[in-house]
Structure formats: C-alpha cells, structure tokens
Amino acid sequence: MTENALKHTLGDKMMIELSGVNKWYGEFHVLKDINLSVRQGERIVLCGPSGSGKSTTIRCINRLEEHQQGRIVVDGVELTSDLKHIEAIRREVGMVFQHFNLFPHLTVLQNCTLAPMWVRNMPKKEADEVAMHYLNRVRIPEQANKYPGQLSGGQQQRVAIARALCMKPKIMLFDEPTSALDPEMVKEVLDTMIQLAESGMTMLCVTHEMGFARTVADRVIFMDKGEIIEQAPPEAFFSNPQNERTKTFLGQILNH
Amino acid sequence: MQNPASEPSRRGSMMTDPKVRAWVFQILAIGAVLGIGWYLFHNTQANLAQRGITSGFAFLNNPAGFGILQSLIDYTEGDTYGRVFVVGLLNTLLVSVLGIFIATIVGFVVGVARLSPNWLISRLAALYIEIFRNIPPLLQIFFWYFAVLRAMPPPRDSHALGETVFLNIRGLYLPSPTPAEGFWAFIVALVIAIAGCVALARWARVRHENTGRYFPVLWASLGILVVVPALFALVAGSPFHWSVPELTGFNFRGGWVVIPELVAITLALSIYTAAFIAEIVRAGIQAVSHGQTEAARSLGLRPGHILRLVIIPQALRVIIPPLTSQYLNLVKNSSLAAAIGYPDLVSVFAGTVLNQTGQAIETIAITMSVYLAISLSISLLMNWYNKRIALVER
Ligand SMILES: Nc1ncnc2c1ncn2[C@@H]1O[C@H](COP(=O)(O)OP(=O)(O)OP(=O)(O)O)[C@@H](O)[C@H]1O
Ligand SMILES: [Mg+2]
C-alpha cells in the first residue's frame, strides 16, 4: 500500500465534533449514536453501502437535516435551533452536491458572487475578483459568463466547488461529488479536490472513489445501517479491515 | 388551385424534395382558406341584398338613442353607435384591468399560502382554491350580484364606513376628488417624489455593488412618497376638494358611484381566476427543485433572499405561460357581464346595437377583432417577457 501522498501535520483545533448524535425519520432510526471529531486540516472520507446514513450525517453538519439527540459543534459553535448559530455555521461550511445544484438562471460568475454579495456584504468588484480567483483555481475562468446549462457535468461540478470556495469556508463537505459524472469527467473533479486538500482545507467527503481515499484521506470511516462501524487511516483500512461488514463492502467495491 | 388533386401528379418528381413539398402544401392551404372565405363572403352579401340590408360601417355614425348604465366618457342617448362602441370597449377594458390586477395579487398570495408550513393557512388556501375553481363563473357572478349586492339595504339604511363610504342596493358610494388650488403643486410634488424614489433605488443598488451595504429602499421610498406631497400640500394648499356622497331624499348625491354590476363582475372574475392563478403559482414554486433551496441554504443565504434571488426567478419561467392564458380567459369571461346587465362591449355593441341596426356581420366582426386584438396584445407582451427571462441551455 502506498503511503498517503499528501502527508501533513494536523492542527490541534477541533473543527467538527459530533457526540452521541441520533436521528429518526418517524420510526426509522437513521443515525445511531454517531461520535466523530474532525481536526483542522483533516481530510476524511466517509463510505458505506447505500442508505447507511452518510448523506444524512454530513447534512446534519450544516443543518440541512436536524438531529434529535446529541451535540454537534462546528468551529466552536453549537448547532441548535438558534437561527444565528445556523447562519454562522453555514457561512463557514461549504457544501458540494452530487447533482451540482448550480443556479441555472445565473451565469457562472453570478453563481459565484451571489452569496459573497448577499451574505458577506462584499462589494461587487471584490466579489468578482474573488470569483475569478477561484474559477482560475478550478481551471475554468473562460466559462465565467456562460450559464450552467452550457457546461459539461465535470465543468459544472468544478463551478459548484468554486462557488462554495468563494465564501472562504473553513470546512468543505462533499456528498458523492463524482457519482453523477461520466467516467471521463471524474478525474478533473477529483484533481480539483486533491488540489484543495493540498491547500490545507478541512474536508469531509462522502465518496466511493477509493483511489482518492488512498491519496488524500487522513482517515476513512465506514458506516452501515446508521452506525460508524470502523475508522482507520487508509493504509490500515484497505489492507487490514477489522469488521466483517467492512470486508464485505470493500470486497464488493474494489472488485469492479 | 381549384383542383388540388391534380397538383401532385403534375409535380410528381419534385414532390420528393421536402422544401418544394412544404411550399406546395402551404400554398394549397392558403388557397383553400381564401376560397372558403370568398365563398362565405359572397353568399352573405347575396343574402343581405335579398333582405334589403345595406352592408358597410356607415351605421356607426347614426344616433343610438338608448342610455347606458355606466360610461367612462361623456355619453348621452343622442350619441352615435360609434361612441357606444367606445363606451362598451372602455367598460370591458375596465373590468379586464381591474380583474387581472386583483386576480394576480390574490392568486400569488393564495398560491404561496398553499405552500405554507402552517397547517391552517395551507388548508384555508386549499379550501379557497377548491371552492372557487369548481363553481362555474356565471354562477359566481349571479351569486355576487343577486345574493350579495341585490340583497343590500335601500339607500336610507346604507352600510356606512365613517360617513364617507356607503354601500347599498344601488352600489358603492365613494368620495370623489376634484382639483383644488393645490392640485398642480401636488402633481409636481408627486413627480419629484417618484423621481426621488427611482434615484434612490439606483443609488442603493450602486452602493450595494460598491460597498456591499444595504439600504432599506422600500421603506425610504414610502416615506418620500408621503412626506414630499404632504409638504407641498402644506405650502400650496389642499390639492383636492372631496365631494362626499350625501343622502338627499331617497338617494345619494355627490361622490363616485360604483354600480353593483361592476362590483359583482369584478369580484366574481377576480376570485374565480385567482383560484387558478394560485394553483399555477404553487406548481411553479414546486417545480424549482429542492436542491436549489438546499444549495442556497448551504451558502448561508437567508430565506427571504433565497425566495427573491433563487426561487422566484426560476418559478416565473414556469408560471408565465399558463398565467397568460388565465389573463386571456379573464378578458374573454368578462363578456359574461351581459348576464347581469353590465354594459360591456358584448352587451351593448354585439347585443343592443346589433339588435337595433341588424348589422350582424359588421358588429360581430368588429367585436371579434377587438377581443382578438386585446388577446394578442396580452400574449405578445407576456411572450416578450418570458423570452427575456428564458434559461440559456446548450
Ligand atoms: N426525508 C427522509 N424521510 C425518510 N427517510 C429518509 C429521508 N431521507 C433519507 N431517508 C432514509 O434514511 C436512510 C439514510 O439515507 P442517506 O441518504 O443518509 O443514505 P446514504 O448513505 O447517503 O445513501 P446513498 O449512498 O444512497 O446516498 C435511507 O434508508 C433513506 O431511505
Ligand atoms: Mg447519499
């Protein structure tokens, strides 16, 4: 097994802390006593079978879903029903979705400047500059004045990443960012994410791209049926999984 | 042209070329329409001549000799049929404009309420929609006219609002303004205030772009619109004399009267059409995928901004086309006014004038053209707006 190619030292600061988090959809127990801490600069890959609660977990972190029991603290702020806290946390946490969710009525540039202008009250000129900076980083500055509908899937996902980065977040959440893409576009998005990891961003990624997990992750977490079953650095996780369910899952996912 | 069957054989080989074929069919179609039109015209001409009715539009200059319940321009019995046409047209336009205005506001409010997370509000909105959408509009007009407005007390026992507004069986009586010494100063003040609001909005937008800071434009504008004219009125004197309706004998004098026929038709059509508009608005908002709201939320945008900057601009594209056809329906349904004697275009022109003159072809043709022109104008306007906001796709 290759070493984590992007080895780095982690900060001491806790960016995300979930302790004893439980969540139900009616009778259905989706999240069962989730405990998870993420340090500043840490890169975590979350995997597991469909329906295991991966999306629900990361969506609780920016309150797209509400947890019913336990504590979630993000960058020192506890998530409660207090709108001030929710807004403060959402400003610091960027999210990238499986289906991009770009705003189709706005140009690429406007997609990127909307939140900085209306949430951070940034002057338009400055917002434009920030947007162009990040569009350069995801390598599509020439598409700035096109509409999302005119771009390929891979380009759209890179715009979505740039849009989130324009808010200068401290944490980035990714929910299967490459699973809606054609195979030839997966690489361009993963490259962008690797580059982001190199810059020291705290990242929590739900993905089944095991190559990405190997090169980038500090820790891989396996979830099943709403529980965290196993977590380990990628070398240990892939070469020596402890739990039967992890082995079965890895067997399925690495064999095709 | 007269014998289409011979066409294909004559041009046999060329018919395989799709361009030629398209042209041939278009020409054949136009020929057929012209032919049928000419036949109908010729036939009617002959019939009219037989019955001794002269055709043409000269009758429009003849005196009408009947009164009209409501006219927005001066009209007396001695005026011409041409003027009757204008009076009817204006009455139709009045109902249409009032109806479209009220129906749009009520429809948007009910449509948004229908999606409210508040159980009671959304049920009430649903109830409104189900009731008014499912009762024939004519019946609703009868309801407002006969069951509500005709059941109002006689003038002596009017329902009064602060001794200035009165409602009775003869209609709704409102105070009416007439220009006074401060009138022109008031107009000037209004123009200045409006210009001030426009300038303020522009300044606020530029400032938001430059510094990122907001300015409460709406409240400030409202303030300007009240304060500036008030100051001018203080200096130059009151802009209007108000003529308040007063009970003299058995009826009211002075003020404005809104006849019950107008109230009934406007209420019925706006409430009926609003039910459909509410459903269109609800569907439009729901057509914007939930992912859009989630993306906006995850960026930290507030609910009000999400609605204004993300949801509504996308929902409008879904809403505009069916909204257009609701506007057209309302305009066409305004001809139901004839049933309660509201003097709209159909009632006075395609009704009374046609009966008195016997000029059926001309009156019907004019009336149809008018409706066609109104409908086409609305469609063109709405299509233009829809094009302007259309999404750019690959
Ligand atoms: N709004 C909801 N109402 C009821 N059940 C839900 C809801 N959202 C998710 N679930 C259920 O919760 C479980 C966990 O869903 P979640 O989306 O977190 O799974 P996931 O691990 O992300 O799966 P996938 O790999 O398919 O995305 C699933 O069984 C799902 O059916
Ligand atoms: Mg998921």
UniProtKB/TrEMBL annotation, chain A:
The keyword Transferase does not apply. InterPro entries: AAA+_ATPase (IPR003593), ABC_ATPase_HisP-typ (IPR030679), ABC_transporter-like_ATP-bd (IPR003439), ABC_transporter-like_CS (IPR017871), MetN_ABC_transporter-like (IPR050086), P-loop_NTPase (IPR027417). Keywords: ATP-binding, Cell membrane, Membrane, Nucleotide-binding, Transport. One of its GO terms (molecular function) is ATP hydrolysis activity. Residues 16-250 form the ABC transporter domain. Belongs to the ABC transporter superfamily. This is Amino acid ABC transporter ATP-binding protein. It comes from Pseudothauera nasutitermitis.
